[in-house]
């Protein structure tokens, strides 16, 4: 590819594709190490999944790799308000997994004993009476018990995105909105430039942090396979009311979840088994009715509350529901990926970006990063989930 | 139609204007609006059915301690270092202090709810003049028409209008007759709100929340008319502000008897609101920040009425004296003006007749929305037929541009014939003839409509003829009529509220823009020689502004503020509204209870 005619000509130490939480954090940490950075964003900052999520984080995962990563990542996430100068509206109302089958409850207990307790993040296994006592708004019919993770919490995504955005600008990062990546120039197996719909950048490194679009982009631009596929999920929010729902409730059978925001809106969804691919950002009556029915069934007092707006967004799913970070030796030199977070990009993104930058700049690979290398899809050594939660 | 005297009318009768409290700070505040679409706005502060006979409101109105108030401004709240530091300690206090209803205070929804399927050839949304007119034309062509109207009555804003209208006579008599005729021709659902568009369905709900309607249609006609929005001026956080339509209903139906009112907005409708109120024996001022009365049809008639005219002024300050609102007005163009003028009036309330086309549903569909100053702002229409370019969706009446009533009726006929032509029921010649007649009437009525004609005729897309103009005036921004006034007007930006759900001021929005521009000061006055640089300056989109200051995220979903703010910003920065855009408007049009969606078990 030649020089970009009619494009803004730039040069930078690194190009980041995507200005969501992951891309912005990567750009910021690269810039903090003294690198010059250009970010390509095909829409507006945060216009993908970063501002469409439920704004919740947890340390409890069904396997060691993700749980260990989460413990560090959440600690990092919770420190961001001070660092970025934007209030992340953090709180720890916890996660409450409602269980409807004894054997599932038993698996949780095992997981707690084998994994969570030893790592210092024990959960509380609650009886139905304890649920009634602590979460009196829940209809416990059909529920055999629950798992409560008090370490899990909530944040406000817009402000954290804005925090990284302004901090990155402070350090001179050039963030190009409405600038869609179009090509990566490779010479002698090395990245030499990257171009977008309106810019041409001479660079030696490119980081793909394009969320659900990463798989498609790396395939079309570089013929690299990273197994990231988009799955659309719908979500909705109600009018605000006084504080009622004091935790984040998840029904492990129906994949229903519900929580309440700082402003008082009740936010939730029921995850239906469809939505493969880049479906439009729309909603369906099918989902809306299912969500309303589950809401009224589980929290009967919410029957009078009014739904204010609904929307949808993409999960960036990988085969083992875990993110992909780093690079493969077979890729052109200078190509990196940080994506495929499978629904926990906001909670993991900032810390993962820091680790990737350390790897890119210092060549040091943190032990926590190792399980998430793209290598695992070549060797078939995927991350195993003891329990999908 | 003359529904029971609403609770709020009693309160106003007692001189109690401060019935509503803001959701964020708990201060007396509000824009009184008794139309169905305003219910969402009240819900933000936990009030329901203020214009019903039995309202529901939070038992305890809380208020944020004044020390927090300054820190908690929507623009600075997320960045305030002290709040970040203290956050873990004050979090619960902040949460509790927001003025909301608790779950048991929400109005109870009937235990019996059901889904109702409604089939039609053409679904018409809106039962005002445009919706009724097109329904009649379509019915005559043999279409099976279903009309949905959110109010319990048909006729839209004309229902309370007694002033003579060109070719129609008295507005209320005309629409009452038309309404009766249409009810005999087509299926009419009153008190039904159209929610909008889902991928697999198009829905609505009854305002008593017992029914969820699922609509099937071949063609959809959006005839939602206009919406009066809050006026923006220093001190507009007063609760003494009412929409023109609600003011007329309050006075004519429910016995509200103010001594003195200031009606703002001097287009056809604004003048008629003023004249209607004056007819009721109320002392009425008519103000506008336009150089002359905007209405060509009524400019000469206002002289023979009792209305006192304050045209060519800005509202530069206002204060609630407890016994009324003292408003200070000054001439346009400040000190540069040839004739200097300063007036003070004390009124019971300000009546907003500043109106905007209702664009929520076209925006939900992602239709492009463009600015046409001659017909009142952002107009989601292209082509004379009102075809939105989405296949089967049309917009008629004021929702597509504010036109005199007799032209609304003509335009409805054009759209009906166009739909008829697509179905082979109307010959092309007949349609062409009707379009030609409409154009002739349009230009004969007002020469400035020639621009409108060009914009619509040549198409808004692709031909290259059409260029969206910069905003030349914003009627609802009562603080600045001309570009010369802008600098002074934004000095009091912190006292000018834009978003009444989330208490966002113009000052917050300007601050948010500054943050998004990374501290770069965007000058309002462009110096000679800087025009090119200024033209290429890209300002943040409304979508991003919304995410920084919370504008339009309350239960009204931006109906009060999004378009106004877009126009005000475009005016301040001399940009085209398309450059700021409108955030994605999401389903549903107004909030729907969970129980209604869940249906009867």
Question: How does this model look, in words?
Answer:
- The complex is a heterodimer of chains A (about 400) and B (about 600).
- With about 400 residues, chain A is of the alpha/beta class.
- Chain A has helices at about 20-30, 65-80, 80-85, 100-115, 130-135, 155-170, 215-220, 285-300, 345-360, 375-380; strands spanning about 10, 15, 35-40, 55, 95-100, 125, 145-150, 155, 175, 180-185, 190-195, 200, 205-210, 230-240, 250, 255-260, 265-270, 305-315, 325, 335-340.
- In chain A, strands 6-7-5-15-16-17-14-18 form an eight-stranded mixed beta sheet. Chain A has a six-stranded mixed beta sheet with strand order 9-3-2-13-20-19, with helices on both faces. In chain A, strands 1-12-11-10 form a four-stranded mixed beta sheet, with helices on one face.
- Chain A starts with 7 loop residues before the first strand and ends in a 10-residue tail after the last helix.
- Chain B has three domains: about 115-225 and about 355-460, FAD/NAD(P)-binding domain; about 230-350, FAD/NAD(P)-binding domain, CATH 3.50.50.60; about 485-575, Orthogonal Bundle (Arc Repressor Mutant, subunit A), CATH 1.10.10.
- Helices cover about 30% and strands about 20% of the residues of chain B.
- Chain B is globular.
- The mean pLDDT of chain B is about 90.
List the helices and strands and how they pair.
The complex is a heterodimer of chains A (389) and B (601).
Chain A: E1 8-11, E2 14-17, H1 21-32, E3 37-40, E4 56-57, H2 64-78, H3 80-84, E5 95-99, H4 102-116, E6 124-126, H5 128-134, E7 145-149, E8 153-154, H6 157-170, E9 174-176, E10 181-187, E11 190-196, E12 199-202, E13 205-208, H7 214-222, E14 229-240, E15 248-251, E16 256-260, E17 265-270, H8 285-298, E18 306-317, E19 324-326, E20 335-339, H9 345-362, H10 376-379
Parallel strand pairs in A: 1-12, 2-3, 2-13, 3-9, 5-15, 13-20
Antiparallel strand pairs in A: 4-8, 5-7, 6-7, 10-11, 11-12, 14-17, 14-18, 15-16, 16-17, 19-20
Helix pairs in contact in A: 1-6, 1-9, 2-9
Chain B: H1 7-13, H2 39-43, H3 66-71, H4 81-97, E1 114-119, E2 122-125, H5 129-140, E3 145-149, E4 164-165, E5 169-170, H6 171-185, E6 187-190, E7 192-197, E8 202-206, E9 211-216, E10 219-222, E11 226-228, E12 241-243, H7 244-252, E13 260-264, H8 268-279, E14 283-288, E15 308-311, E16 313-320, E17 325-331, E18 342-347, E19 349-352, E20 355-357, H9 360-364, E21 370-372, E22 377-379, E23 393-395, H10 405-422, H11 428-445, H12 449-457, H13 483-489, E24 497-499, E25 504-505, H14 506-516, H15 531-536, H16 542-549, H17 562-573, H18 577-580, E26 592-593, H19 594-598
Parallel strand pairs in B: 1-9, 2-3, 2-10, 3-6, 10-23, 12-19, 13-14, 13-19, 14-15
Antiparallel strand pairs in B: 4-5, 7-8, 8-9, 11-20, 16-17, 17-18, 21-22, 24-25
């Amino acid at each position: 590819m030649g020089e970009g005619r009619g494009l803004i000509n730039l040069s930078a130490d690194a190009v980041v594709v995507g200005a969501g939480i992951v891309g912005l954090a990567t750009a910021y940490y690269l810039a903090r190490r003294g690198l010059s950075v250009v970010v390509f964003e095909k829409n507006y900052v945060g216009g993908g999944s970063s501002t469409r999520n439920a704004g919740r984080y947890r340390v409890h995962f069904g396997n060691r790799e993700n749980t260990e990563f989460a413990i560090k990542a959440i600690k990092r996430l919770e420190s961001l308000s001070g660092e970025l100068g934007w209030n992340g509206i953090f709180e720890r109302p916890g996660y409450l997994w409602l269980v409807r089958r004894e054997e599932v409850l038993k698996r949780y207990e095992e997981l707690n004993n084998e994994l969570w307790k030893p790592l210092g993040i024990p959960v509380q296994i609650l009886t139905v009476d304890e649920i009634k006592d602590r979460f009196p708004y829940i209809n416990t019919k059909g529920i055999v018990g629950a798992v409560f993770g008090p370490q899990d919490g909530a944040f406000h995504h817009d402000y954290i995105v804005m925090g990284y955005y302004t901090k990155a600008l402070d350090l001179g990062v050039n963030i190009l909105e409405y600038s869609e990546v179009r090509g990566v120039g490779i010479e002698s197996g090395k990245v030499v430039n990257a171009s977008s719909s309106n810019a041409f950048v001479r660079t030696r490194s490119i980081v793909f942090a394009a969320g659900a679009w990463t798989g498609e982009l790396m395939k079309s631009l570089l013929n690299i396979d990273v197994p990231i596929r988009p799955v659309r999920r719908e979500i909705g929010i109600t009018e605000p009311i006084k504080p009622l729902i004091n935790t984040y409730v998840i029904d492990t059978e129906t994949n229903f979840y519900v929580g309440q925001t700082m402003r008082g809106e009740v936010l939730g969804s029921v995850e239906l088994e469809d939505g493969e691919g880049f479906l439009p950002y729309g909603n369906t009556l099918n989902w809306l009715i299912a969500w309303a029915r589950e809401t009224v069934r589980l929290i009967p007092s919410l029957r009078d509350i009014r739904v204010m707006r609904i929307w949808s967004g993409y999960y960036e799913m990988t085969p083992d529901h875990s993110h992909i970070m780093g690079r493969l030796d077979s890729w052109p030199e200078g190509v990196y990926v940080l994506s495929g977070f499978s629904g926990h990009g906001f909670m993991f993104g900032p810390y993962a970006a820091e680790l990737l930058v350390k790897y890119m700049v210092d060549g040091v690979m943190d032990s926590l990063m190792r399980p998430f290398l793209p290598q695992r899809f070549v060797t078939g050594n995927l991350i195993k989930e003891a329990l999908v939660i | 139609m003359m529904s029971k005297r609403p609770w709020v009318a009693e309160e106003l009768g007692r001189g109690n204007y401060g019935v509503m409290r803001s959701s964020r700070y708990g201060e007396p505040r509000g824009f009184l609006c008794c139309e169905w679409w305003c219910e969402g706005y009240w819900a933000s502060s936990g009030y329901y059915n203020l214009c019903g006979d039995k309202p529901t409101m939070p038992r305890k109105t809380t208020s944020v301690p004044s020390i927090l108030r300054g820190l908690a401004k929507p623009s600075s709240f997320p960045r305030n270092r002290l709040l970040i530091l203290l956050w873990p300690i004050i979090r619960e206090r902040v949460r509790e202090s927001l003025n909301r209803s608790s779950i048991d205070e929400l109005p109870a929804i009937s235990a019996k709810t059901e889904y109702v399927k409604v089939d039609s050839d053409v679904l018409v949304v809106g039962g005002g003049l445009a919706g009724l007119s097109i329904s009649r034309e379509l019915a005559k062509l043999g279409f099976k028409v279903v009309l949905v109207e959110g109010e319990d009555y048909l006729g839209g804003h004309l229902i309370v209008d007694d002033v003579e209208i060109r070719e129609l006579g008295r507005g209320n008599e005309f629409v009452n007759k038309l309404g009766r005729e249409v009810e005999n021709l087509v299926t009419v659902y009153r008190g039904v709100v159209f929610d909008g568009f889902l991928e697999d369905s198009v829905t609505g709900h009854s305002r008593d929340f017992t029914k969820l309607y699922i609509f099937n249609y071949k063609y959809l006609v959006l005839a939602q008319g206009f919406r009066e929005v809050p006026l923006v001026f220093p001190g507009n956080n007063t609760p003494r502000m009412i929409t023109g339509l609600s003011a007329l209903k309050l006075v004519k139906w429910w016995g509200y008897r103010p001594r003195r009112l200031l009606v703002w907005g001097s287009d056809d409708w604004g003048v008629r609101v003023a004249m209607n109120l004056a007819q009721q024996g109320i002392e009425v001022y008519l103000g506008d920040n336009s150089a002359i009365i905007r209405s060509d049809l009524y400019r000469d008639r206002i002289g023979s009425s009792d209305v006192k005219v304050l045209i060519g002024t800005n509202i530069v300050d206002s204060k609630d004296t407890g016994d009324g609102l003292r408003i200070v007005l000054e001439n346009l163009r400040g000190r540069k003006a040839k004739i200097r003028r300063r007036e003070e009036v004390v009124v019971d309330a300000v009546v907003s007749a500043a109106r905007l086309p209702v664009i929520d549903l076209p925006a939900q569909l992602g239709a492009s929305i463009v600015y046409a100053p001659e017909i009142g702002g952002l107009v989601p229409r292209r082509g004379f037929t009102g075809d939105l370019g989405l296949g089967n969706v049309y917009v008629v009446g004021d929702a597509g541009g504010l036109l005199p009533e007799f032209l609304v009726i003509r335009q409805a006929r054009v759209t009906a014939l166009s739909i008829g032509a697509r179905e082979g029921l109307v010959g092309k010649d007949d349609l062409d003839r009707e379009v030609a007649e409409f154009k002739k009437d349009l230009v004969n009525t007002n020469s400035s409509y020639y621009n409108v004609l060009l914009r619509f005729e040549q198409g808004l897309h692709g031909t290259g003829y059409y260029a969206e103009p910069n905003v030349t005036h914003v009627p609802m921004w009562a603080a600045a009529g001309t570009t010369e006034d802008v600098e002074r007007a934004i000095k009091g930006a912190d006292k000018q509220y834009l978003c009444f759900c989330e208490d966002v001021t113009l000052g917050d929005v300007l601050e948010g823009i500054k943050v998004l521009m990374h501290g770069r000061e965007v000058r309002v006055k462009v110096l000679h020689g800087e025009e090119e640089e200024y033209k290429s300056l890209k300002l943040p989109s409304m979508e991003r502004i919304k995410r920084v200051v919370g504008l339009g995220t309350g239960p009204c979903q931006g109906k009060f503020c999004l378009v106004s703010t877009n126009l005000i910003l475009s005016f301040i920065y001399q940009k085209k509204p398309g450059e700021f855009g409108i955030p994605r408007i999401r389903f549903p049009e107004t909030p729907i209870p969970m129980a209604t969606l869940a249906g009867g078990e």
